[in-house]
Every structure is written in structure tokens, then in C-alpha cells.
Predict the 3D structure of the following.
Amino acid sequence: MMLIFLSTLRMSTPLLFAAIGGMFCERSGVINIALEGFMLFGAFFAAAFTIATGNPWLGLAGALAGGAAFGLLYGLFVIQWRINQVVAGTAFNFLAMGLIPFALKILYGSTGASPSIPIEQRFQIFPVFGAWGITAFAWFVLRYTPYGLWLSFAGENPEALDAAGISVRGVRYSAVMIGSALAAAGGASLSIFLSSGYARNMSAGRGFMALAALIFGKWRPIPAALACLFFAFMEALQISAQNITELPIPAEFIQCLPYLATMIALAGFVGSSKPPKQLGNAFPR
Amino acid sequence: MPKHGFIYTISTLLGLALGIIAGLVVTKFAGENPLHVLQVIIHSAFGSRYDLGLTLFYATPLIFCGLSVAMALNAGLFSIGAEGQLNIGALAAAAVGACLPNVPGILAPCLALLAAALAGGIWAWIPGWLRVVKGSHEVINTIMMNFIAYAFCGWIVRVYLQNPASQNPETKDMGAAYFIRAHDPIAHFFGDAPVSMAFPIALLIALLLWLFLEKTKLGFELKACGENEDAAKLAGIPVKRLRLLAMVLAGALAGWVALPEVLGNVGRYRIGFSADYGFIGIAVALLAQNNPLLVVPAGILFGALHKGAGDLDIETEHVTRDLSLIIQALVILSVSLSAYFPLWWMNRRKKP
């Protein structure tokens, strides 16, 4: 029981980072279907920087910087050039799935995975505290800082924000970059904390689960974090069930648990969950 | 965004070219000559009659998936679920073929295709129903359904249908009558490449879908749901029912990937046979601007890209088949962007 609890906490890390990242992005009015891709970029950058320097902190820094850079690029397409955000997000997911094997091949001569990172060069526990710390910080920012207020206005009523002399696009750019950097940190916690290096498509749908957690949590940090905890519990259950040999239900059914839980949670709670009013709508200034 | 015909087409082609060029320029980072990469791709895709046959073989599932995604998009739904639906459809066709091996003649492939369409349709109905009744976003649900489809197919094959003669996870062989490849002039013409009757059938389906969307009242209403949901509701169009219909049709179309793969190529369902056809289908549909007729050239283009990129593994030092995904992503972005090219061009001329 204790083991499942600890495992749940560990598994919640990537989801939390991604969900809080997605929250910054979507509260400002920008849909982020590309959380999955940003997680993959983060997992890759973290592994590459850790392998190059032998230091997981530099790996994490690399993931944050790489995530923010691709976030800026994403912002350019959806904020500056105003192309459909769901379409652009899908393209960015593809971009991650194509560019990372491409870079792995150049760096390590193999398209599938990075070399494995020895345990002393990986994080032992920090990302768990980091993720919950970020959640608390996000709650504080949204509630008590002017930036949190701007964020909400950018998503709910950008005209008012504009009239107050604050650049809607500026707020959205910053939110998208913070969001993608955090999603990348979630990816980093996959490659240099939960496993030992980058593996092909290792995020395995967690970016989308984080999005579901966000909707489930009504775009607010604490409820979203609890939703992440629920999904993480499903993952922990699935992992511990894999270790039991004589199981009455097929292993494939247990693999589906987190995905089924996501769909059921969405179906059960989405009706009462209202997205930011201007989510998905570009703003001319 | 007004779609003034000719200018719009030109700018889409411009966007396409821009995306491909950007993708090729990326190979510069791997120390390759982009022109050489392009040459390898073109030669590999169209170099011989057999190569062309392979390109068309890859194009066929891409056309089905492109039609699937376009169908849903026409009704205003963005389905990422073709990948799961095509696996379920192919498995259903193979299962019918393996369990009822003695169905005679033309009835056999028809039965298998019916099963594929039904299975794919049901798989798509679930996220469709969740969207129209529960309001949960189809993008997330279709992706979750993809993961569940992989697990489901793995389970069915492992427990019920594993081919005893094979080391790989794949189903038993179908009855001989199901295997359309056995008497297929098209495969023969292309030097026994895996291309089959499935290709012209895909073209026919594209034409039928175009007629449905452009020339029937139901098709018109369906497109109205996609263009302006509120207006469609005001006009008394049953938006929910039509969207569910579009979703089920999309699933059936993706399920028909069973035709080129199971009935036309190997005669069984192999786990992991799809080279991301369902995902590439999204790029195909977006490039074709959801027009079923344009899905055909877009499908052939991405089929050629896929076939050509496959040879990059061997022909170049550092560039691999993953380049095809990079180019797809860049083409989606640049084609989406190209809708604004005419606008920018006009604005530029207005400035003093």
C-alpha cells in the first residue's frame, strides 16, 4: 500500500509539470494540444544535456530552455500568425516525433533511444518536490499577483486587458513559453528521474492526460493537481499489477487503465467545466 | 477567411513547397546535401515501375485515412483516431477471414470489408458519442482510443487468433477467397509490388465521398455543421446526429485500410503493420483542405515521401525515415500559414 502511494507520487511528477504548464498556456487563451510534443522535447533535451555534462541540474536547465524555445516557435505560429491552434499543436507533436530521432541519430548514432544515464547522474527525488512546489507557486501567482490577473484577462476578456494598456500578445507569449518550459520539465522528469535516458515516444500520451486533468480540474491548479494524482494512481496501479504474475484479468486491460480513466473522467466532469472564454481565439494586437 | 479559388490554390501549393524545402534544409544540420536527399527520395519513390507500385501501395491507406480525417473535419470534428480505427478495422477483417475461411467467391472480401467498416465505425462512434452527448473533446478521446486499440488488438491476437506458424504477433491466415491479391492485374503490372485493386477502389471511394459532400443535401448539412455550428443549429440541422454520422463514417473509412493491407497484401493482421498511416492521414486531409478529390494527390505525395524516406536509412549517413514526419509537420504548418499569403500580399501592396 505504501509502495503504491510512493509510486503514485513519483508518477504524478511528469503529469503535474505538464498540467500546470498547460494551465498557464490555456488560461491565457491559447490551446496547447502540443503538451505531448513539448514533453518529448524536454525528455530529449534533459537526457542530452545530462549525458553531455554529467549533471542532472544542467539537464533540467537544458529542458527548460529547449521547451521555452520551442514554445516561442509555437507562439509565433498561433499568436503572431494566428493559425488554427489545434492544427498547429498536432504539427508540433509530429515535429517532436520526427526531430528527436533525427537528433538522436546525429548525436548517438541510433534513432530509438539515448545511451542510458547512470543512477548517480539522475535525480533521486527532487522532481517530485519541484512539481508540487510549482503547483503551489502557480496557485499563488494566479491568485495574488498582477501577472495572474493579466493571464485570466488574456483568456477571458482580452479587449479589457488591451484597453488597460497591457499587451495581450505579450502575456500570451510569456504564458506559452512558461507553459512549454514546464511541460518540458515534465518530460525531463521522465528521462532523468523516472527512467534512465530518452526512449522513443516515452511520454506515452501523458501530455494528453495532463490536458484531461486540466479540464477535469476546471483550469485551476489545485484541482488539476488532484486530477493528476488520480491518473498517476492509475499508472501506479498498472505498474504494480504488471509485477503480479497470476492475474485474473489480461495484462492488456490493465495497460488501458490510465487511458480509460482519462476518458471516463472527461465524460463525467467536463459538462460542469467551463474553459476560458477566448480559448483558441487569436487576438489582433 | 475567404477562399478565392485560384489564388488560394496557388498559395497552398506555395505553402506545400515551402514546407518540403524547410524539411530538406533541416537535413543540412546532419551534414547532408539537401539536394542529394531530395534526389534519393524522388528516385526511391518513382525510380522504377516496382518503386511506383510501392509508392501507390503506401498511398492507398493514406488516402483512406485522409478521407477519414477529412470526413470528420468537414463536420467540424478533429479526429486523431484513424490510427486506432484502422487497427481495429484490419483486425476485424482478418478475424472474419480466419474464422470463416470457407465463404465463397466475391462474398468473402465483401464480408471482410463490412466487418472492417463496422469495427472502425463503432470504434469511432465512442469518441463521437462522448463529444456530442457529453461534450468532451474528441482530440483527447480519439488519442486515448488509439492507445486502447493497440492494447485491445494485442490482446485479441495473443489470446484468440495467434498464427501458430509465426514468431511474430499476427493472426492466422485468411481463407483463400478473401485474398484479392491472388488475381490482381494491378499488382502484376507493377512487378508484383504490394499495390492492389485497393488503389482504384480508394479513388472510387474518394469520388463517391466528394459527390456525397458536394451534391447531396445531407452532405451539405454535414458541412454546415463544420462551418458554423450555431448557424446550422438555427437552420434546424440536427448537428449532433450529423456529427455522430460523420464520426462513424470516418471510422469506417479508416477501417478500410484493411483492404490494401489485409486483403490486398499479406492476408492477415500484423501487430504494428501501420507506418503511422492514421497520423499521416491528418497531414493528408489538411493539405487537401478536406476536399475528398484532393485527398488523392495529397495521399500519393505523402505515400511517395514515405517510400522515399524509407531509403534514406540506407542511402545517407545520418538522415533516417523520420525525416518524413518532420516534413509532414512542416507541411501542415506552412500550408495552414499559406491561407494568409494572399492577405499578406494584398496588405503589402496597400502600404505606401
About this structure: Residues 2-272 of chain A form a domain with the ABC transporter involved in vitamin B12 uptake, BtuC fold (CATH 1.10.3470). The interface with chain B takes residues 33, 77, 81-84, 86-88, 90-95, 97-99, 101-102, 105-106, 111, 204-205, 208, 211-212, 215, 250, 252-253, 255-256, 259-260, 262-263, 266-268, 270-271 of chain A (CB under 8 Å).
